[in-house]
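The authors assume throughout that readers already know how a fold can be written as C-alpha cells. For illustration, here is how one protein appears when written out as sequence plus C-alpha cells.
>
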Amino acid sequence: MSKAGHQREALPGAVEKHVLRRDGDRLAEASDMVAAEVPVAFAVNGAPFAVMMATPGDLEDFALGFALGEGIIEDAGELAVESVVESLEGIAVALAVPPSRAAAVEARRRSLEGRSGCGLCGMAAIEAVLRPPRPVGPGRRIAAAALDHALRELQRRQPLNAMTGATHAAGWANPDGAIALVREDVGRHNALDKVVGAMARAGIDPCDGFAVTTSRASYEMVTKAAQAGITLLAAISAPTALAIAFAQGSGLTLVGFARGHGHVVYAHPHRLHDLAREALA
C-alpha cells in the first residue's frame, strides 16, 4: 500500500518494498513505496569529479544545475552531457566542458574532496569551500501573497513525496506566484540543482521570479541560488547564520519559515514590496 493508503503506480524515483505494518494491535504484511537513493558519479572531460547520492531522475537537469552552482561553467552552452550509464552500482554521467574551464573544474574538485573528507586541510581548502557567491541582479519585487501562493502550490506539486514521504522539492515561481517548475530529490541541494538546470535548459531568466524550497536554507543553498542569479529564495524552514551572511553579501533576498500566511525575512526585504517599510529596507 502507498503512503496514501491505496495502491498506486510507481513513479520514477520510487521503489516498492515489502514491509510489516503495525496499526494499534494489528500487524499486517504490506507493500510500501520508498524513495530511491543511488550514487550518481559525475566525470568531467574523462576524469572523475564527484559522486552525489541522489534520486535517479531529471539527471540532465541535475548535471547542468550542479555545474552552474559549483562555478564549473558560466552558462548552459558550456556543458555537454555525453552519456548517462546505469549499472548495479549506480549511475555514471559523463560531462564535457571547454578546455578554458579546466582551472575551474580542478578548483571545485579540490573543494568537493574537502567537503567529503574527515576535515579541511589548510586555509586554501576552507576558502574554496566557503566561497562567497557572486552578487545578484536587481530582480523583481514580489508580493507576499504571491509567495504564499507559490508555497501552497509547491505542496501540491510533489507526487514523489506524496508517494514516499522522503523527498525534498524545489520550485521556480513566476512573479505572480504560479509555479513553473518543480523538481524532487532525497537531497535538498540536488532538488535545487535540478531546478536551476531545468531553468537554464528552458532559457528562464533567474531575475524574473523566485525560488522556493521545502528544506532549511543552508549556506550551500544560498550559494547555489545566488550563483545561478536567483534573487529571492524562500525556504519553509530556518536559515543558518552563514546563509544569512552570504545572502546579505550577495544581495539575495532570503526568506525562512515560509509557511501558511507568514514568513521571516532575513536579508534584503526590499523585494517583498508590501513589507517594505523604510525601517526594514
In short: Residues 1-7, 114-123 have pLDDT under 50 and may be disordered.
